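Suppose a colleague, Dr. K., hands you the sequence of a protein chain of 303 amino acids and asks what its three-dimensional shape might be. Before reaching for any lab equipment, you can write down a predicted structure in token form. Begin with the sequence itself:
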Amino acid sequence: MGVSIGLQSARRIPSPAAMLELLKPITWFPPIWAFLCGAVASGVPLTSSLGLVAAGMLLSGPVVCGMSQAANDWCDRHVDAINQPDRPIPSGRVPGQWGLWIALAMTAVSLGLGAMLGPWALAATVFGVLAAWAYSAEPIRLKKSGLWGPGLVGLCYEGLPWFTGAAVLANGLPSSQVILVGLLYAVGAHGIMTLNDFKALEGDRQTGVASLPVVLGERRAARVACWTMALPQVVVVAFLVGLDRPIHALAIAALLGAQGLAMRVLLSDPEARAPWYNATGVSLYVSGMMVAAFALRGLEVMP
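The predicted structure, expressed as tokens, is then:
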């Protein structure tokens, strides 16, 4: 009897592997990369602040992004039961209220680590935490909007970590050039997040989530996503030319051209090709971010 009770209790506690899967390590790369881009753009040598860089990467990826994934999966457990029933919560591998408890615990850890990194990191962390819950949780649940949902995620995945990396390394407000370029890449990330919505198309239709693929249809939504990704990069190229950084501008233009070829493949069958594009075209997109960061390094601050 004692052994039976012990086994039943163990089944009510998720395994470390299930909890790690809930935090989705594969999603940590974009904010970590954006943080590094912002740190590079700050002009401060990374080798002189390795501790700050490592802590910022931890905050941006496993902690804040991991928290947002746990919160989203908890709030999406009914949708995931339709779209992806093998995920940790709908499959029962993270049972009961554990998904909520993990999300709340990670929220507290996020705020604590952000406070340790200084006021700029704390302010960015507070924004990121509030955005994560506003995106996923009722009654706000911005995820229901094909406009505001992807925009908020793009801002928090690319723009906010970029700003945080620059602010933490510089120990102050980044230059207007750094803020502008980070914001442009955040706007472009709206398109990336729209393509990400293709994987939940059927569940979104059934549960009333007005993602762009649901509202516009697959092909129109994919075209909107492509233009949304491309136009901010065109502005970045023009901006870098104006800052007398022609080599960096040419490199980003070449990366954009390669994205254009990948977009043609995507548009041939958006629902089937969206995962492929997220592994190819998005890699080219974020490579351009780092090129832009090096272009901004050492520039004089605009008045």
